[in-house]
Hints:
Elements: H1 3-58, E1 64-67, E2 73-78, E3 129-133, H2 137-142, E4 165-177, E5 179-185, E6 198-206, E7 214-222, H3 224-227, E8 233-239, E9 257-258, E10 281-288, E11 295-299, E12 303-308, E13 320-330, E14 357-365, E15 371-373, E16 378-381, E17 388-394, E18 398-404
Antiparallel strand pairs: 1-2, 2-3, 4-13, 4-16, 5-10, 5-14, 6-7, 6-13, 7-8, 9-12, 10-11, 11-12, 14-15, 14-18, 17-18
Amino acid sequence: MSSCLKLTFIILLVLLCLLSSSFSSSASPPNSTEESETLRPQKEIQKLKLIRKQLQMINKPAVKTIQSSDGDTIDCVPSHHQPAFDHPSLHGQKPMDPPEMPKGYDQENESHEDFQLWSLSGESCPEGTIPIRRTTEHDMLRASSVRRFGRKIRRVRRDSSSNGHEHAVGYVSGSQYYGAKASMNVWTPRVISQYEFSLSQIWVIAGSFADDLNTIEAGWQVSPELYGDTNPRFFTYWTSDAYQATGCYNLLCSGFVQTNNRIAIGAAISPVSSYKGGQFDISLLIWKDPKHGHWWLQFGSGTLVGYWPVSLFTHLREHGNMVQFGGEIVNTRPSGSHTSTQMGSGHFAGEGFGKASYVRNLQMVDWDNTLVPISNLRVLADHPNCYDIRGGVNRVWGNYFYYGGPGKNSKCS
């Protein structure tokens, strides 16, 4: 072969290699793009299927539907069809009759039950039904995790701010507690991130702050992720395994049994307190029925909301070993510094009545189903430069404390 032909042959081989390389490199991205376009809709389809399956479990068929002025839809669901009775230990049951009230309970000066926006128009659910705030696809799509929708992030210790949870609480421990009662004023604290919340509540706690923690919780909260707005809302919560796999807010899983046809758990509260203005508080009582062992929740002047069945729990089958009252926020440290999400009114405890948040008339239920004053209340703030707490006792309010704060400030960064 002549040198000229050899050169031509080599050039052809090089060109063929270049063309082959160019083809494979240009062909590769479209293939990977096609795969990605195929996978992406598939993931979304699976997510929507999961959401709709959960919505079917949460949203039960209603006999009446009420539209609230704040955009909520309230479904009146037959009480024996509520989500609670999907729980394996509650299948086939019906709501229990009202229990014996704790001795020493005084209904005077308690708050009135018409405290929710949806019912202010005079609407109510028929007897034999309960009002349930309808959960929507939008609610679940806002959640950081569809599978954990309606659940708290695990809280490791009473005095811990792990996972960004920060507290300012009054608490008692070291004895046997069969319930607790308090009144707390309601505010609209600023919550700056969808994934943060601000609340005020009562905790009844048993077990250790490890995998076996049992809690029963009720109060008010502002949670944009859960509700899609910044209204303070009445809520309940429970867990029997330290927030891992059991329990949820309100009626978003099987567990809490509602008996009241006029209060919607998770619905917006109205009116609310104002700075240097009128103060509105809600009174809550949680106690263990001596006869059947269930933990009942009462709001205001004798209005029973429902109960947590004793079968949900391990340690709380007997009694609580700690009770807490007060505030909690989630701090996601936006922009690398402490959140400006407010606790309570957004003002420190030292500002006092009409300016700071309070919890008053703190009481316990003892082994004899009797309401008694708290004698050994301790107070604790995880980060007092951000949110603080100050306790006191007087003749009108009994045991009380002021708490809260603005979050980020010159001393809290």
